[in-house]
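tokens incoming
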């Protein structure tokens, strides 16, 4: 089954493919060994703990193993850094208006070992995202720029195994009309859930504060009704602070790492 622990005995190799990300894990007498490659031409492929042959001339990453530890976990995770979200075009919110948008966030693969107390080996992004710097030059933060834009309807999102659908509810209770042009989402505060046909994250609530466009972000643990029946997979990396405020993102630079 998806995202379930597996047992790898000595001399065993297992293969996963989650969208474009291909992962091989090998267990030797005293090591765990991992190898990852990415194929952007196969974003819809899902392979779970198969016995696919290892490619030739693999450069393994090697990890010391705890004796008699043969349990391996491959779990979905979200980026540690914030992600920058944009609508297809600037969206105006008159006083009292509210709407829900949906974005697709590429997941990371969290690879850990151990039956009782899992120990993290590494995390591998399914997609290499562009680095982004946002905020003022002296006080800004390093994040990731999403290649996809915020959509009004979930049906507009690509349904691929390496993408988690993130619902963003935006409300403008102020007396001024404000523009939604970009948004900084702190993905480390989001939970991952397994839906009936895709991965989901918990939702983000955004409240605009007056003419300045200042945004108050809240990260409740639940998702939206549109996700249908869900099962919790991965908790948030970090609890969300109460009522995080952020200024409009006036300075934004994107670059490739």
């Amino acid at each position: 089954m998806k995202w379930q622990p597996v047992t790898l005995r000595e001399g065993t190799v297992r293969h996963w493919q989650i969208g474009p990300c291909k992962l091989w894990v090998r267990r030797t007498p005293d090591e765990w060994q991992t190898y990852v490659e990415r194929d952007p031409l196969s974003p819809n492929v899902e392979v779970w703990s198969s016995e696919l042959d290892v490619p030739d001339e693999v450069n393994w990453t090697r990890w010391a193993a705890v004796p008699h530890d043969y349990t391996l976990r491959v779990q979905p995770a979200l980026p540690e850094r914030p992600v920058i979200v944009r609508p297809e075009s600037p969206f105006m919110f008159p006083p009292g208006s509210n709407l829900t948008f949906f974005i697709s966030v590429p997941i990371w693969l969290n690879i850990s070992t151990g039956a009782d107390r899992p120990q993290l080996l590494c995390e591998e992004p399914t997609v290499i995202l562009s680095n982004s710097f946002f905020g003022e030059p002296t006080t800004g933060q390093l994040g990731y720029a999403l290649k996809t834009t915020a959509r009004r309807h979930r049906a507009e999102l690509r349904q691929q195994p390496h993408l988690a659908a993130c619902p963003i509810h935006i409300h403008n209770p102020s007396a001024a009309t404000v523009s939604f042009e970009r948004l900084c989402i702190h993905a480390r505060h989001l939970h991952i859930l397994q839906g009936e046909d895709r991965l989901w994250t918990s939702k983000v609530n955004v409240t605009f504060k007056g003419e300045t466009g200042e945004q108050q972000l809240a990260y409740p643990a639940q998702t939206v009704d549109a996700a249908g029946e869900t099962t919790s997979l991965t908790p948030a990396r970090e609890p969300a602070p109460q009522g995080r405020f952020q200024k409009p993102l006036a300075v934004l630079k994107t670059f490739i790492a």
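note: The first strand starts at residue 6 and ends at 7.
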